Amino acid sequence: MTTRRVALALAALAACADDPATAPAGGDTTVLDRTSNAYSRPAPNLRADDLARHLAGDVAFEATFVRGPAPVNAGLGPLYNHNACAACHGKDGRGLPQFGGAASQALVRVSLPDGTPELPGAPIPVPGLGGQLQDHAVFGIPAEVGVALAWTETTGSYADGTAYALRAPALTLTYPDGRALEPTIMRSLRQAPAVFGAGLLEAIPDATLEAAADPDDRDGDGISGRPNRVWDVDAGAVRIGRFGHKAGNPSLVQQTAAAYANDMGVTSRRFGGEVEVDDARVEATAFYTATLGVPARAPGDVADGEARFAEFGCAACHTPTQRSGPHPIAALADQQFQPYTDLLLHDLGLDLADGRPEFRADGREWRTPPLWGLGLVATVLPGASYLHDGRARTVAEAILWHGGEAEAARERFRTAPADQRAALLRFLSAL
Fold it and tell me: Which end of the chain is more exposed for a tag (fewer CB within 10 A), N or C?
C-alpha cells in the first residue's frame, strides 16, 4: 500500500468518529438500534408519503408466493429456491449457506464458457437449466437438480504460532436421475446478502465510482479496482453494476425483478415475459430495500483498530466514506455515509475464485461488500457466516481467505501481533 494511499485512508477514517451523531453510518438514514431488528428499521428521514410507500413495500417483501392459480401471491415456480424475499433475507439480513428441506437460503449460479447470452454481455445460460439452479419445485414436478453442500477444512497459523482453521465449500450437483452435472458447466455458490442501506449505494454517482477505479494500477499499490459494466433492461444500454456479489445488476429495481424470477420463479415484464408480478409490486419491493435505515456504529473507543484498518490496507477497497448525489427519493440524496465499500470489482485470488465470469467480472473478481452493520450480523442471524458463499465462520476467517489484490492486507493482519489483530476485530465489530 503506497504512502499516499495510507495517508488518504487515515484521513478518511479520522473523519469517522465513534459518536453516531457526528459521523452517522448512514447519514440521515441512520437508526440508533443495535438489536436483532437493527437492519429492519425504516430510514428516519423519510417523508410521510415515502414512509407509507416503505411500509407497503415491507408487505411485498414479506409476502409468501404460492403455486397458481390463487387469489393472492400466485406464481411460485414451477421451479424455485425459496418462496419469499424475506425467507432468504431474514430481518433484512443475510441468509445461511444451506440447501434442502422445504427451501434453500443459498443458490448456485451456472453458465457455459461459450454461446449466446440472453442479455448483451451476460453469462451464457445452460440449456435446460438457465443461469441459476432451482433445487425445489411445486408439487408434482421434480426439481431440476439436487444440491448437496459439504465443507473441506485446512489449517494454518498466524505468525505468532496461533493456529486457525479455514473451510471451503464442496458442492455435489445431480440431475433427478442421479447423473452429475457436466464438468463443462461453470458454477458459483452464493448466499443471500443483507439488503439494508441499498438505496444509498444506488445513489452514489457513477462519476465517483469511475474516479475511484484504477484498472491498470497506475499508482502501483497493487489495487486495481474497476466497475462492472452490465446490461440495464430498462435503459436498453450498458451501465455500471452495483448490486450482487459480482455487481451484476445496475439498479435495485432490476436486482429485485431478477430475484423474483430466478429465486422464486415469479416472472415479470423485465424477466420471463409473463407478468406474474407487476411493475408496481417490483418497484414497491425495491423501494422498501432502498429506504431501510443503516444501523449506527456502536459507541466506544475503537480508534486503535480503526488505524489498523487503514495501515493493513483494508481501506484501499473498503472505502470508509461515500457521498450520494441526486436521487428520486429525497431521503437518499446528498448524504455522507460510511459503507466501507468502493462498489468496484477486485481480484481476490485463486482461493476465492469461482471461475465464472459475469458481464465484465472475471472468475477471480468480486465486488467489495459493504462492511456497515458487520458487527450485528450474528445478532440478526445467529450462526451466520461470511463471504459470498458463507465459507467464513468468523470475520477473522473472512480476512484470512483474502488473496489477489488483498493478499498484502491479509498478510499484514496474519503477521501482526495478537493485540493488533484483536483491535482490528473490535473495530469491525463496532460497525
Answer: N
